[in-house]
Amino acid sequence: MADNDIGEAKRIVITRAPGQNESLRAELTKALGASARIIELPCVEFREPDDTAALDSAIGSIGNFAWILFTSQNAARYFARRMRALGSHPAQTGKPHPRIAAIGPATAEATSAEGFSVDFVPAPGTGRSLAGSFKDSVRSVAGMEVKNPTAGFLRGVAGMKILVPRSDLALRDRGATDWMEVLREAGAEVTAVAAYQTCAPKALGGPQLAEVVRDGADCVIFASPSAFENFARAVGAENLRRLARASVFAAIGPTTAAVIRSAGVACAIEATEPDARLLAEAVAGQLKSGRGTAATTSLPGEGAKSG
């Protein structure tokens, strides 16, 4: 561990869904050293909606929408999966099709991988925060309009029909909700449909969880409010308080951080978006400094890889 000089091998718990941890695991190993113990403890999993009627209706009338706005990689993947199940395909042509917007470069990459042609990529972040910054920018330039592609996008959607596929929990977890509010304020007619559901894994509570409860961890990383809440229920209130006192809790996204803190638990690292490298470096820096949960590290993000 001499390269990173953070002492003995660290134990890091990642609570994201299976298949979403490769880049974060690699960056944590790079930042903490090869001897770091990376424990994957999935606290969420994603499934197709139990009721697809609204989703199927939206796909069946897809040509009526001017835009589809994907706010996460899962939204794009599950929406495309349902299209194919209904005999359609993201890349098909020959009839009117909406333009595609994807929040952040990682979501755009996943959207393109499904066969969609991505027309516009707003910067990562919530619609509310971006809209507020645009308004502040416009006000700051006396009589002049700030040239910003996302601001232009918002000004241009008045009267348009926009489809927002999302998680069944998006209305509680914000993200998609913020964008829907901003688009509606801009005059768009927004239709939100649940493209997938977020659930607690049936297997949560196996040997990985027992190991974490028994041996503790140096850092536990949560990428969604659901992941934290499922973790908290699985370990129990007493173990949660004990783990939080001895561990650094890291949150991806301000909503996740807020849910952690509302449970009376300190959140030492708050990443606006899940950039794996920045998050891993923040974890290493926090553990190296020995600050534990006494201080908060806030990170900007560069790519939305939300669940």
Nearest-integer average pLDDT: 82
Structural category is: alpha/beta
Percentage of residues in DSSP E strands: 15-25%
Report how far the terminal alpha carbons are from each other: 32 Å
Q: What is the CATH C level class of the largest domain, in words?
A: Alpha Beta
Order of helices and strands: EHEEHEHEHHHEHHEHEHHEHEHE
Please tell me the total number of domains.
2
Helix content, binned percent: 40-55%
Sheet with the most strands?
6 strands, parallel
- Work out the helix count: 13
Overall spatial form: elongated
> Could you tell me the radius of gyration in angstroms?
20 Å
Q: Can you tell me the CATH architecture of the largest domain?
A: 3-Layer(aba) Sandwich
Give structural notes.
- By secondary structure, this protein is of the alpha/beta class.
- The protein is built from 13 helices and eleven strands.
- A six-stranded parallel β-sheet has the order 2-1-8-9-10-11, sandwiched between helices. It has a five-stranded mixed β-sheet with strand order 3-7-6-4-5.
- Helix 10 packs parallel to helix 12.
- The longest helix is centred in the middle third of the chain and has 14 residues, at 127-140.
- It is elongated and about 60 Å long.
Itemize the secondary structure elements and their pairings.
Blueprint: E1 11-14, H1 22-32, E2 37-40, E3 45-47, H2 53-60, E4 67-70, H3 73-85, E5 99-102, H4 105-113, H5 127-140, H6 149-155, E6 161-167, H7 170-173, H8 176-185, E7 189-199, H9 207-215, E8 219-222, H10 225-235, H11 237-246, E9 248-252, H12 254-262, E10 269-271, H13 276-289, E11 297-299
Parallel strand pairs: 1-2, 1-8, 4-5, 4-6, 6-7, 8-9, 9-10, 10-11
Antiparallel strand pairs: 3-7
